[in-house]
Amino acid sequence: MSRQAGHMLVRGAVRNHVQGKLPPNVRHYAQAAAVQDAKPPVALFGLDGTYASALYTAAAKTASLDSTSKSLAALAEVFKKDIKLPTILNAPTLSPSDKSQIVQELQRHMGGQDKGETVKNFLKTLSDNNRLGILQGVCEKFTTLMGAARGELDLTITSAARLDNKVLQRLEAAVTKSEYSQGKKLKVISKVNPDIMGGLVVEVGDRTIDLSVSSKIAKMNKLLTDTL
Predict the structure, then answer these.
(1) SS3 216
(2) Most Cβ neighbours (<10 Å): which of 11, 18, 132, 226?
(3) 158: helix, coil or strand?
(4) Does the predicted model carry a pTM greater than 0.70?
(5) Side by side, which strands form the sheet with 199-204?
(6) Helix (H, G, I), strand (E, B) or coil at 83
(7) Which letter does DSSP use for residue 131 in this model?
């Protein structure tokens, strides 16, 4: 597939998910793969979820899901190491030249993982649509899609400070033994959010267990307000 054709496929997949239409060029590529195989395994919400679903569809139809997943995993690591990156990507003052340089730098971090240039074309689409700011969310949502395709269940653990691997492993073991795991293999995602002040927020699939200090304070404040 040519670079231009790949770019057109990604842009077409995005339009399909955003507008609910299937352009002729996407129908052409769909003949090479069953529609069922290309359909995202779970429904995602939000703009980042829409774009992640579109990317999944484009990657599935070009048999590049594995390389796309590895490329996005590499980009997710960039976000972990550079906390200023989301702010930069969301800057409204980015010029076309700035965005082009950013895309090139992001490609460099993928380290050759993007075999079919699916992610490269996707980054170009984000840049053209002024949506580079949702890239971090797309990386996270794509991980959810890949996990669902493999029969995995996301276990997202949010803490006020970074947890070490031993703590994460104990939490994973505890949830695995509970009814929350639904008997599925868990994929642990660790997040840090100082705003919760302490404790944990554990999300398993679509269920949330809020054990954060901020939640307890909010409940206490409500109790006091209702009482007084």
Answers:
(1) helix
(2) 132
(3) strand
(4) no
(5) 185-192, 152-159, 199-204, 207-212
(6) coil
(7) -
Rounded Cα gap, residues 199 and 136, in angstroms: 25
CA–CA gap between residue 45 and residue 66 (Å, rounded):
23
2-37 as b/e: b if 16+ CB within 10 A: eeeebbbbbbbbbbbbeeeeeeeebeebbeeeeeee
Burial class (CB in 10 A: 0-12, 13-18, 19+), 115: middle
Handedness of CA 45, 46, 52, 57 (dihedral sign): positive
Per residue of the chain (228 residues), give pLDDT as tens: 555 555 656 666 666 665 554 444 434 433 444 444 689 998 999 999 999 999 999 999 999 999 999 999 999 999 988 989 999 999 999 999 999 999 999 999 998 888 889 999 999 999 999 999 999 999 999 998 998 898 888 899 999 999 999 999 999 999 999 998 888 899 898 989 999 999 999 999 888 999 999 888 888 888 888 876
Q: Terminus-to-terminus CA distance in the chain, angstroms? A: 69
